[in-house]
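Hey,

The postdoc asked me to send both predictions to you directly instead of through the lab channel. I've kept everything plain text so nothing gets mangled by the mail client. Protein one:
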Amino acid sequence: MTHLHYVIASYTITAVGLGGILVWLLANRHQQRSALRRLQQNDKKCHWNKKP
């Protein structure tokens, strides 16, 4: 393995790692948003139920 191959390999691994982290963060963000929406909807339902 030449020096160039080593550099390319390390860059590829870094890019794949960062890409994976980005995808994971975006997926987490989406889950949190949908969870927040569910909580807000439940909150609204509770408020409506509390009103006489």
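Protein two:
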Amino acid sequence: MVVPSQFAVIRLKSDDVTPDFLLCYLSHRNLLRSLTICESGQGLNSIKISAIAEVMIPLLPIDKQKTIAAYCRMHTIQRQLYLDLIQQYDSKMNAVINSAIGGDLNGYYQTRY
């Protein structure tokens, strides 16, 4: 097994933060944007582990963390469903257009009438 040097495992030291909330918080675009801005100047967008270690995690009540994490999971599922639906519509549109123009023209164009 090969593990890249950019790979990190985050282990919670207390029960004050739920893993699902932490995932949601660390995945939020505002936090990612601020971490990327702080680490800009590199050719690739990467975030140093030391930058992640300095992130302040808000200590919300556990029930609120669970609610936010549930909403985050629901959002992720809905987003994937929408992306799948868009892909299905694109495939259908391509099939309709291909059937309307007779499929692949093999590089030849039909004359205009």
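Summary for protein two, as requested: The chain has one domain: 19-100.

Thanks,
C.
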